[in-house]
Amino acid sequence: MQLYSDKVMDHFSNPRNVGVIEDADGTGEVGNPICGDVMKITIKVDDDKIDDIMFQTLGCGAAIATSSIVTEMARGMSLGDAVSITKKQVAEELGGLPPAKMHCSVLATDGLKAAVDDYLVKRGREPIAGPILSSDPNFDPHEDEESESEACDL
Amino acid sequence: MDHIVYLDYAATTPVDERVLDAMMPFLRERYGNANSLYALGRDAYKAMEDARERVAASIGASHPGEVIFTSGGTESDNTALIGLATGGGRSSGHVIVSAFEHHAVLEPAEWLSKHGFDVTELGPRPDGLIHAEDLKAAMREDTVLVSVMHGNNEIGTIQPIRELADVAHAGGALFHTDAAQTLGKVDFDVDELGVDAASFSSHKIYGPKGFGALYLRKGTRMAPYMMGGGQESRRRSGTQNTAGAAGFAKALEIMDAERAAETPRLTALRDRLVEGVLGRLELTSLNAAETDTRLPHIANFIIKGVEGEAMLLHLDAKGIAISTGSACSSGSLKPSHVLLAIGCPQEFAHGSLRVSLGRYTTEEDIDFFVESLVPVVERLRSMSPLYAKIKAAHEAG
């Protein structure tokens, strides 16, 4: 059984910053519908800081909650700091995630990284985020964690 | 939680009051061990055998000794698969199971494949059925056992067991069916179905959890799975659960007595549910909808552009209990093996909802569910980066 923390449930039930910035400076879209999770982040950038940020996510409770919290964490951050947010920090900010759900926080950090790089590349600057793991078709979100196999009695 | 709208009867059911009344004496004053010779033991033994006779009569077994009491559907399935394959000291051979069996069948089949047996997983067609001609093609000269579930627990389709058992027998193989979802809900007769073994679960029919039975046709060789004191004619050791047996027999009796009235009631509720969901939500479908032979209480929907666990959590917040075949609900990356087996694309299988009805479901429950589901789906679709694309693709044909 996977139990979500109160903070995960709060961000799932009342997600912050949902939507699309129409005249966005950068857009990141990551994930894969085959895996069940797709996330899109749009950002406005001012003086290399994230001035506004919104998300859309198709996914489970953890995917929506991690998307929501990462937009809160990144708002006002410098681009360098924003791409340095780790999946562990996202999970900690939410009061922890069940082991099998840790990969959802990769989606959130990757969406942010992709949006920042999109902004930079559009302006002829060098990308800074490094590899976007979850867009790699061979990406195994469970490879670096101990995943517990869930019992299922339908 | 003040009031729960429970729509997950295929997962488990509450114990019926009448069942609880039948069980209580064996938890209190009639607590004897059914293997003891003194009066208290003989009383427990008689109660056990009375329960066995009633279960045997319900399923059309020719002898009460063909009913072995177990700890539930999983133990019955495990025992049947491993016990029948290895019966008589056999250590190799070919076993066929359907690809959309419960894991209580698939896992022991996998175990057999690692211990000397060849195992074929036979796929259902998109109609949610295992076809006799497909089984025929999968049979081999060394096929020793075929196991195909009676009613599928996720999509509710009822398999043509008689035809499948005939194919197995024509090829010299034994036939087992997992009837955990069908017992008590449709007519079940071991001779009419032609099965050598069948698994049953008590908690799916308003009986207690942790109890079940395995039907084993007389003369069928089966290696015991639980070993010890030699209870159940050496086929299942362990002190018998007398309260469980009394409860299970009572639960089955109630199912049998009420089925003629309950089946049309549930079917009408299910049809109201299906009409409500498909009528109120676009890009939504019922799995295996074209198949008429189905359980009256299970409906499995694909709701495109949303993820199942997110729906489940929002509905839970409104006091509604349902299941999903989404990967996220199971902790794996793959969605329901049942939906994949009938050819449902992975990206849509993540958006599946299984709604299952039962004895205490009312029209008000169905209406409340539909009224609750619509805004949940609309909200999740409005948050989805893909929904506009899915809709455009659908409208473009």
Explain what the structure shows.
Chain A is built from five helices and three strands. A three-stranded antiparallel β-sheet of chain A has the order 1-2-3. Chain B has two domains: 144 residues, Aspartate Aminotransferase, domain 1 (Alpha-Beta Complex), CATH 3.90.1150; 238 residues, Aspartate Aminotransferase, domain 2, CATH 3.40.640. A seven-stranded mixed β-sheet of chain B has the order 2-8-7-6-5-3-4, with helices on both faces. A three-stranded antiparallel β-sheet of chain B has the order 9-10-12. Chain B has a two-stranded parallel sheet with strand order 1-11. In chain B, strand 6, helix 7 and strand 7 form a beta-alpha-beta unit. Chain B is globular, with a radius of gyration of 22 Å. Classes of the chains: A alpha+beta (154), B alpha/beta (397).
Quick gist of this model?
Chain A is α+β, with helices and mostly antiparallel strands. Helix content of chain A is 36%, strand content 18%.
